[in-house]
Amino acid sequence: MSSSSASIQLDVERQPGRPPMLTIAEGHDPREWAEQHRDALRAAVAEHGAVLVRGLGLHDAAEVAAVFRRLVPGGLMPDREAFATRQRYSDGVYSSVKWPANQPMCMHHELSYALEFPGLMLFACLEAPSAGGVTGVADARAVLDALPADILQRFEDEGWLLTRSYNEDIGATYEEAFGVADRAAVESYCQAHAIEFEWQADGELRTRQRRPAVVRHPVTGQRCWFNQIAFLNEWTIAPEVREYLVDVYGPDGLPFNTRFGNGEPIGEDIIARLNEVYELHTLRTPWEAGDLMLVDNVRMAHSREAYEGPREILVGMAEPRCVFDLATHPQDGAS
How does pLDDT run along the chain (335 residues), one tens digit per residue? Predict the structure, then answer.
């Protein structure tokens, strides 16, 4: 860290309903700007939880990868256990997950169901959609404070359960998710990452993983609502899609679903309430081509709204954390 870099002050603008934004004059070389302003930008993310940088003018995947790597000298993480496929541009640089454009992706914390998750998310926009497609953010501390006390208490006491049924038709296959192909390697991965597994008669894989719903921020120690309970639940799926999936795969064979930590189903009313609280705390600004956004993945949840037209957002993940190290209840890792 150079003294000049450490002393740079960034003028981050705050507006109601919008994520913190830093607007810079055009004409900078994005790589040089990232190198020079890395420490100041990271300090701004630590202060605000997320920062959208406008004016950097990112224009291709190679440039985005170079900027990402300058901002996180510790390196980028590989994507593991994704629930849907991504395009890989280079080591640690991916497309956003392949998800129908007309279906929103509600608020969540990236890979909060994994044993190791990224503490920092990096997003870059190469092509903005003609309508929608916003990557919203929401402060997980404020969300936690706004949740009904009984719902919060149960999830904090029990944690939450993610169930997955891997198949060749919907979402990522287990080969894509785990990065391994043969059964023995899959089983070793699951055992090493606190995932229960069961092979079905047809050769498909079903898994269960219990995770904490509330964690403490690794720097501030503040309690944060941290999970994908609402996003990956059956009641967040569009009704006609849910009915189709239940008809084809059965109620216990959905590609993914979430439950209370003790395995009981989560009611539609609770999922609706979670999504309502998220909406009340969502900050959103439409993407513009060339934008960069950094998000503290513990402090801030993020979403993706439905959109029209081509949309190309690149994603990087960094600063791995172990979810059980941050759990407010140590028993959350128990099966």
Answer: 444 444 567 899 999 999 999 999 888 899 999 999 999 999 999 999 999 999 999 999 999 999 999 999 999 999 999 888 899 999 999 999 888 999 899 999 999 999 999 999 999 999 999 999 999 999 999 999 999 999 999 999 999 999 999 987 777 889 989 988 899 999 999 999 999 999 999 888 999 999 999 999 999 999 999 999 999 999 998 888 889 888 988 888 889 999 999 999 999 999 999 999 999 999 999 999 999 999 999 999 999 999 999 999 999 999 999 999 999 986 544 44
Q: Could you tell me the end-to-end alpha-carbon distance of the chain, in angstroms, rounded to an integer?
A: 43
Backbone angles phi, psi at 123, to 5 degrees: -125, 145
Q: How would you classify residue 312: left for phi > 0, otherwise alpha for psi between -120 and 50, otherwise beta? A: beta
How far is 122 from 170, CA to CA, in rounded Å? 26
In degrees, rounded to 5, the angle at the alpha carbon of residue 168 between the alpha carbons of residues 165 and 173 is: 65
DSSP symbol at 265: B
* Sheet strand arrangement including 205-211: 196-199, 205-211, 160-166, 256-260
Coil, strand or helix at 137: strand
Report the helix count and the strand count for the chain, using DSSP H and E: 10, 19
**How far is Cα 91 from Cα 282, in angstroms, rounded to an integer?**
31
- Which secondary-structure segment (H or E) carries 292? strand 292-296
125 phi and psi angles, rounded to 5 deg? -100, 115
Q: At what angle do helices 30-48 and 61-71 cross, to 10 degrees?
A: 50
Pairing of strands 223-225, 105-108: unpaired
Q: Please tell me the distance from the alpha carbon of residue 260 to that of residue 161, in angstroms, as a whole number.
A: 6
The two most distant CA atoms of the chain are separated, in Å, by 62
Residue entry with tokens 């991916």: 94
